[in-house]
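Can't paste images in this forum, so I'm doing it all in text. The chain is below; anyone willing to post the predicted structure tokens underneath?
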Amino acid sequence: MFAGVRVVELAQWVFVPAAGMVLAELGADVVKIENPATGDPYRGLMTQGIGAHVGDVNLNWEQNNRGKRSVAVDVRSERGREVVYKLIERADVFLTNFRPEALERLGFDVEALRAHNPSLIYARGHGFGVRGPEADTAAYDSTAYWCRGGMAHTLTPSDYDGEVASRGAIGDKPAGMNLAFAIAAALYRKATTGEGTVVDTSLLGSAVWTISSDILSAATREAPADPAVKPNRRLGGYRTKDGRLLVLQFLNAAHWPGIMKAIGREDLVVDERFATREARMANNDAYEAELQATFAEKTLEEWSELLRPSLGPWAPVQSADEVVRDPQVVANHYLPEVTSPSGVTYRLAAIPAEFNETPITPGRAPGTGEHTEDVLQEVGYSWDEIIQLKLDNAVG
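Text version of the structure:
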């Protein structure tokens, strides 16, 4: 979809690199600029015992950087900055999560890069947005998205002591997808007008968007809610004979009779206490007692066999281990296999989109500076010039 699009990525960790990965997965040539000595610090988390790995393959790194090419450049050096400017001259997109003051100090702010490419799309990922007193404040998704954005409080049950902790990069992935979408919009504008756009997305803004139902309710209250009172977000459902939790959802009343038939409780459909949504709400305790007793009679596997033909909205509460083996996940290639150069086979999470009903096959992530020489030759450097850049420690 993005074949022919050139992206220069100067970004670290997950949020913005995840956006670059989505663009690469859809065909863009994404050149990732890394520090020659250390690379992206996200590479090092595996050595700290954080994240998943198979053999020598860092799965978290692969998940968020697959399909890119890595160029090792010391952007603090004058000659290194010249290399970046050469890359920018032929790029469509510059993608970064460096803070504005760092970009200005390096000579990579909007005006500086536009001097080398007036139609450049300049895309930035922020913690707290482009304006306000904390626009330049450092952030991770656990701080800006999960805590500051209201996610932790909103998803914590009222009887829980403390706040529910986030999972790894839980805000980085949706924020990265938001940024990738915004870049896609800017690419369309560039294709139709020839003009570049400055694109901004933040972790905080992505959190507001994600829980907008709660945010809108809060915005309509005349007085703030008592901060000591937490919303009740405990998941409603029915325990099966083997202790599993099964959830039904009836936003469309037409699904209710089919589900009741599937579980052998057609009597509830004609029972005056439960025949309509209003009646079920009025007699909720009795209704819930009937269903709790019914679902306690069989195991989750037995109920799944009965409910599946109904095509109604129901689901078991699954662990990550079960999601990996879920028949729908397998059938839709949501965890495609990748093989490393050393022959190690592993699975990655597919981007949640496909085109022409064809699953996208992910590539692998690059080693630090793996493509430095190839990319420099493409932008016009000779071998003698590349060797001199290496001797000057401008590239690795």
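The longest strand covers residues 29-34. The two ends are 31 Å apart (CA to CA).
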